[in-house]
């Protein structure tokens, strides 16, 4: 079932929004009790925001426009690591942690449908990751606007670059979540799931690097085309992961271990 069908299912009442919200609240409550997740949500954004700010304020201005573009591009690419790594880490621990704690089967015996469980877990990882990533981007752009050298600010504040960042954040996070959930369904160990989930979430970031390093000149049209490509990738990933959340399959997988 594609993401579009999922939205249609919500509208038709086949997916109960109340049960999806209940799954999201449960996941958020679990995050608050998990020190690793809390630490990741706190430390990772600070580190991945400090580095680009330092990088942009120490950038030389007596260089060619090409060199300046590459410096700014690599810096802003760094900001896209958080919406990739953070949701991948959260999603990768989602199922395997419940298996370890023995809370998965009780959840699967509730009236919550497989699609509602999948969407709820995805939203619980997507909302904080995208919120944090947008906050980081806003702080970075404000710092550049107020304090950076004018030459650097002119490059960093170009419309296509900002549009690409805004569009790529939720789309990269979406891919990372589907990849993380797919790993979490199959994994037996939390640490292995986190490592594999992070690795599986990185390939789309390599594609966006083509724009960051000016291999492909960033324009509004290119940014939109890349965003459409990522959206197609997200929908395809959802179609692959959805069958893995079959209730019987999850229970059978649990009992076979």
Shape: elongated
**Structural classification:** mainly alpha
Low-confidence stretches: none
Q: What is the N-to-C succession of helices and strands?
A: HHHHHHHHHHHHH
SS field, number of helical segments = 13
Strand residue content = under 5%
Residue-averaged pLDDT: 82
State the total count of DSSP E strands. Answer: 0
**Quick one: biggest sheet?**
none
Please give the alpha-carbon distance between the first and last residues.
Answer: 28 Å
Helix content range of the residues, please? over 70%
Oligomer: single chain
Gyration radius from CA atoms, angstroms: 20 Å
Explain what the structure shows.
There is one protein chain. With 257 residues, the protein is an all-alpha fold. The chain has 13 helices and no strands. Helix 9 runs antiparallel to helix 11 (203-212). The longest helix is centred in the middle third of the chain and has 34 residues, at 114-147. The protein is elongated. It starts with a helix and ends with a helix. The mean pLDDT is 82.
């Amino acid at each position: 079932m594609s993401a579009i069908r999922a939205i249609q299912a919500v509208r038709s009442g086949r997916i109960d929004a109340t049960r999806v919200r209940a799954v999201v609240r449960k996941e958020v409550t679990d995050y608050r009790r998990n020190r690793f997740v809390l630490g990741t949500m706190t430390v990772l954004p600070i580190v991945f925001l400090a580095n680009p700010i330092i990088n942009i304020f120490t950038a030389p201005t007596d260089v060619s426009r090409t060199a300046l573009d590459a410096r700014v591009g690599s810096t802003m690419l760094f900001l896209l690591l958080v919406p990739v790594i953070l949701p991948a880490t959260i999603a990768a621990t989602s199922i395997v942690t419940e298996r370890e704690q023995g809370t998965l089967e009780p959840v699967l015996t509730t009236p919550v449908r497989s699609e509602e469980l999948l969407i709820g877990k995805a939203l619980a990882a997507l909302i904080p990751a995208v919120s944090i990533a947008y906050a980081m981007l806003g702080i970075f752009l404000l710092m550049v606007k107020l304090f950076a050298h004018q030459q650097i600010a002119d490059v960093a504040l170009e419309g296509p670059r900002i549009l690409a960042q805004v569009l790529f954040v939720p789309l990269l996070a979406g891919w990372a979540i589907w990849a993380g959930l797919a790993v979490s369904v199959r994994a037996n160990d939390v640490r292995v799931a986190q490592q594999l989930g992070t690795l599986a979430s990185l390939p789309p970031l390599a594609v966006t690097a083509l724009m960051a390093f000016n291999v492909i000149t960033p324009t509004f049209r290119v940014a939109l085309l890349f965003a459409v490509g990522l959206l197609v990738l997200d929908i395809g990933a959802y179609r692959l992961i959805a069958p893995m959340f079959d209730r019987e399959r999850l229970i059978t997988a649990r009992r076979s271990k």
